[in-house]
Amino acid sequence: MATSGANNPSIRKFIDVQKALKGASYPASKQELLKVAKQNDADEDAMEALAALADDEYANPAQVSKAIGNEG
């Protein structure tokens, strides 16, 4: 009974955000993550998800995903 992540908006958001952050250096601040996402032509959903993050420093992509999940 496996479900496809493509139909789950929050999983799709995680994937979009991680794609948007390709090449980011960690640790990274929220502003640095937004800058990388913009350079990667991130879609509006990914940019909104990143913009909603707390103004913290993120140690790795997993920490970013966790923070986005907490926003959901």
Overview of this protein structure:
It holds the Pfam family DUF2795. It comes from Paraburkholderia bengalensis. This is DUF2795 domain-containing protein. The chain has 72 residues and is mainly alpha-helical. It has one domain (15-71). Helices cover 57% and strands 6% of the residues. It contains four helices and two strands; from the N terminus they run αβααβα. It has a two-stranded antiparallel ribbon with strand order 1-2. Helix 1 crosses helix 3 and helix 2 packs antiparallel against helix 3 (44-51). The protein is globular. Residues 1-5 have low confidence and may be disordered.
End-to-end separation? 24 Å
Query: Reading side by side through the largest sheet, how are the strands ordered?
Result: 1-2
The global form is: globular
Strand content: 5-15%
Low-confidence residue ranges: 1-5
Largest sheet features: 2 strands, antiparallel
Count of DSSP E strands? 2
Count of runs of 4 or more consecutive helical residues: 4
Output mean pLDDT.
88
Order of helices and strands: HEHHEH
InterPro entries: DUF2795
Organism: Paraburkholderia bengalensis
Protein name: DUF2795 domain-containing protein
Pfam families: DUF2795
